[in-house]
Amino acid sequence: MKKNFEIKKDILLYLLLKQHALHQHADTKIYFIFGILGFIAWKIIPILTNLSTNFINKTSMIISVLIILFMIILMISYLYTIIMAFNETFPNTKSEKNTIVFFGNASTKTPEKVCKEIMNMTDENSLKELTYDYHINSKITTAKFKTTKHAFISAFISLFSFVVLYFISSLKL
Questions:
Q1: What percent of the chain has a predicted confidence (pLDDT) above 90?
Q2: Ordered DSSP codes for 32-78
Q3: pLDDT band per the 50, 70, 90 thresholds, residue 47
Q4: Number of neighbouring beta carbons within 10 Å of residue 124
Q5: What pLDDT, in 10s, does the model give residues 112-121?
Q6: What range defines the domain where residue 116 resides?
Q7: Alpha carbons 138 and 141: distance in angstroms, whole number
Q8: How far apart are CA 26 and CA 151, in angstroms?
Q9: What is the rounded CA–CA span in Å between residue 135 and residue 131?
Q10: What is the pLDDT averaged over residues 127-144?
Q11: Partner of 59 for a Cys bridge, out of 2, 6, 17, 63, CB 3.0 to 4.6 A?
């Protein structure tokens, strides 16, 4: 029985470590997205100023409509990227169950109470706690990757729109 318990505990601890690595992987992707957003924000104001003063009223109706369309696409996708990136950065970490192992619950208790609860755990309870921790972290990881995916897609739409507007603004009409 003890060996079986140790194997299950080791498996759960391995899965929790793997989840931690996945969380860090998603966070790294978000930092890249924030870099894209920062670059666009840094470069977009002069481009939009150039487009609005030199192109919209001085070019054909089709070009003006395309410029405005890409401006709208850029702004909507940019805002959506920001929303998704912040959702990934600050996922919902609320727990439905008052478990001691999950960090969201342990942080609300005193160190003495946490220590006492851990020391009083039976083997079966510790497996239940680790299983619950794995389950709630799986939800967090899934949410992080879902929002990261949406942020990546919308960031590249923003980047594409930015590149189109940049090339239009660099034309000599």
A1: 6
A2: HHHHHHHHHHHHHHHHHHHHHHHTTTTS-HHHHHHHHHHHHHHHHHH
A3: confident
A4: 9
A5: 887 787 778 7
A6: 2-170
A7: 5
A8: 11
A9: 6
A10: 81
A11: 63
* Cβ neighbours of residue 109 closer than 8 Å, sequence gap 6 or more: 100, 117
pLDDT in tens, 76-103: 998 998 888 888 777 666 666 666 666 6
CA distance 58 to 29: 41
Work out the burial of residue 77: count CB atoms within 10 Å of its CB; fewer than 13 is exposed, 13-18 middle, 19 or more buried.
Answer: buried
Determine the Cα–Cα distance for residues 100 and 115; give it in Å rounded to an integer.
10
Q: What is the pLDDT of residue 76?
A: 92
Gap between the Cα atoms of 31 and 35, Å rounded: 6
pTM, entire model: 0.72
Cα–Cα distance for residue pair 171/51, rounded to 1 Å: 10
Cβ-based neighbour number of residue 158 at 10 Å: 25
Question: Would you call 112 helix, strand, or coil by DSSP?
Answer: helix
Query: Are 77 and 157 contacting, i.e. CB atoms less than 8 angstroms apart?
Result: yes
Looking at the predicted structure, is the pLDDT value of residue 37 above 80? yes
What gap in Å lies between CA 134 and CA 20, rounded to an integer?
Answer: 10
Number of domains in the chain: 1
99 close to 132: Cβ distance less than 8 angstroms: yes
